[in-house]
Amino acid sequence: MLFCNFDTERKINLIVMDLIEMIKIAPAAIIGLTVHEFSHAWMANRLGDNTAKQEGRLTLNPLRHIDWLGFFLIMVAGFGWAKPVAFNPDNLKHKHRDEILISIAGPLSNLLTAFLLFMIVRGLYFLEFFNSTGPGLEIVNIILVWGVINIGLFIFNLIPLPPLDGSHLYLTFLKEINPTLMANLYKYGTVGLLVIILAESNLDVNILHLSGMVNSVTTSIMQLMAFN
Fold this sequence. Notes:
- By secondary structure, the chain is an all-alpha fold.
- The chain has one domain.
- It is built from nine helices and no strands.
- α1 crosses α6, α6 crosses α9 and α7 packs antiparallel against α8.
- The longest helix is centred in the first third of the chain and has 45 residues.
- The N and C termini lie far apart (49 Å).
């Protein structure tokens, strides 16, 4: 009976720890997804298409951008997505070029957000509270994790699989060459992506090798900023 009680207590403690970790990373997911989709909308509007603006997406209000399934997957699997921003290619002056610019604006905004978060951490290191006390170091570590999550969003969204942004690097041309193939890629892309995410999270397989890429980019940025 004592063993059973101890085992139950251990499980409860693990659940509580997981919930605490989710609470820590939730702001990063919200910030990352919001900035990402806002950047798509901003770039589209900048290039002459106001579709996203009319739909209320040219805002930093997270509720206009969060897809709750994608948000949940970020919490439990480390990668996810937000509501896609719509745009009308017919309103663009240079369709192929502008579609690509709109697509990469999202991932690049996450990379910029990561840079800004790391710069904040770099600045905090000059304050004694943040480099020598437990609470201060905990805050620094949380902000670092937020930066890493944004790097993850940057890399994840560049995967050339619909509906992710990386797919638009070729889909903008494919829709004119083979619209049926493009439609099928969109149709099955989301399902395939979801299967890959769940497989990596639950079956101990590494299909996309995203962790290694995230670590490499994070290390490079930290070296560039002269982190110890």
